[in-house]
Fold this protein.
Amino acid sequence: MKDENQATVALTVGNAVLDAALGGLGELRETWATARVETWLGMVLGRSGRVVLTGMGKSGLVAQKIAATMASTGCPSFFLHPAEALHGDLGMVTSEDSILALSNSGESEELVKLLPSLLRMGLPLAAITSKPESSLAQAADWVFGYALPHGEGCPLDLAPMASTTLQMVWGDLLAGCLMERRGFTRDLFALNHPAGSLGAKLSKVKVLMHRQWPHVEASASLTQVLKAMTGGRLGMTSVMDGETLVGVVTDGDIRRGLERAERDRTNPLALTAVQLMTKSPATIDEETLAIEAAGLMETRKITFLIATRQGVPTGVIHIHDLLGAKVL
């Protein structure tokens, strides 16, 4: 019975948290002002400085996340702690910067104390807050507001829960719009994420491919084909006519070739590359993203692609290369 009661309480509390967040998000979806966002975007893009995020407590933690998101997606940004700013860190802010301040109440003591200095510097000020009548909102040039029709969702209605969710969504909304307006591309994203799986997925094929790969002429014998494949350790060899790709031979091609020779009662050792090969093999431009190469391999159910530059083979990218780089 005790376990059942605890489960009921957990369900009630959990649903209250979800309802609070969903209620705020639903209202924001219907009320956020695109015109206000557009003018803010124009201001940010028209300045050479950075977007400086600031906020206290939980709002400060959300501000740090938004600053990190903006910085990683093409908008120079950093987090400024309001209390530290009051004791010298304000010197990090330049006249070309703009401010995006977060406070659910709009009355955070340290933030309110910082406002006169920001206004004296003539910095454009935007605010994410639920209180349009607050000191922060009144000082701001742009107010990105939200409502909490079902409160925070906290069982005691004390801890910030739904409010930080709404602040985070506003930050992502602004960051997403900035990405679009800046024309931020996958290549630029990769430059900002050189490490980890994100960086690998957004690397180009030419970064991961084998620049030395097995190849034989069309007239190569079965023995020569096997020797090339063994040396290349890719389970394949390309078949070339000069610099022109005419086909590939894989382990499967050899098995099928041997089966045909047995069926036709011909000498398997007389087989040549041109008789074994798969014509028109799958290729991919070396400038293509690795994640797109992975998708092509999965769609065609193959384990490698011939990389090309202007139609000329330049390498081979194997599924093991993608696995090793954590693209897959």
Q: What stands out?
A: Residues 2-31 form the longest helix (30 residues). The radius of gyration is 30 Å.
